[in-house]
Amino acid sequence: MDMSIVSAFLDYLRVECGLAKNTLEAYRGDIDCFAGYLAELGLRSWKKVRAKHVREFAVSEKERGCVPATVARRLVALKMLYRFAAAERLLPVDVTLAVDTPKLWKRLPRVLSPENVEQLLSAPDEKTVYGLRGRAMLELFYASGARASEIAGIKTGDVNAGLGVVHCFGKGSKERIVPVGKCALAAIDRYLLEARPVLSARAAKPCDLLLLSKSGKGLDRVRIWRLVRRYAGIAGITGKVSPHSLRHSFATHLLEGGADLRSVQEMLGHARITTTQIYTHVDKRRLLSVHRKHHPRA
Predict the structure, then answer these.
(1) Which residue range(s) make up the domain with 83?
(2) What span, in angstroms and rounded, lies between the C-alpha atoms of 273 and 292?
(3) Average pLDDT over residues 54-64
(4) What pLDDT does 189 receive?
(5) Is there a single domain that holds both residue 136 and residue 277?
(6) Is residue 46 part of a domain?
(7) Does 27 participate in catalysis according to the annotation?
């Protein structure tokens, strides 16, 4: 089996989704278990897997004594793997679309308070080249709600300061235009004027990506993930903070401010409104406020 697809998937879960180490190890174990099952069938390629193989695997796991929750988690891991691989065009189709899975828990995202966001945005030392880059990166994250891979892929020409928008290319190379505020545009402009030329001059060949490393190459999503974690530590924010924390905060704070779910869906680049609806579970304070204001017996 080509395990590079699995490695790319686990990297996505760690960097983009911010999943804990134990969760990643569980998913890796689920996928390894499935790969072993396929090897027994003589299947050596993910492309040769069909929906029936996934279903039969679930049955075999149940028959060998796995509890329903474990079987369900294995199926969730496989569905996530194939959905990712199909979206990234590593596999031609998602064969698990025809496979039903029991409903399990919904993992609520980590959301930073507005105060924590301000602390995080102020963490970079803007007297340095790297601090200016860090401030521009963090401002862009919170202003756009973009994923780490999307931030890494933004080019200088994708930022339109005149219109106040940025072009993002999400899963499956789907393009969307997201508004960004004046604060983010100001931070990006200062970075472009004072910091990026310094970094660009170190490059062996020209790079049109917005965020550059110290060698003048584009920052990859793993490095971006580490920078966010580093600045969270400098800001003194406890708990795990990842690029996805800023994405979740972006969506939640918009809803708290009165934005409608469809608009947030479009800005996040979600294909289905049900994906965006998780934020309605996070926004409890707003629901309580609405209830107290409008219910006659509140």
Answers:
(1) 4-98
(2) 27
(3) 87
(4) 97
(5) yes
(6) yes
(7) no
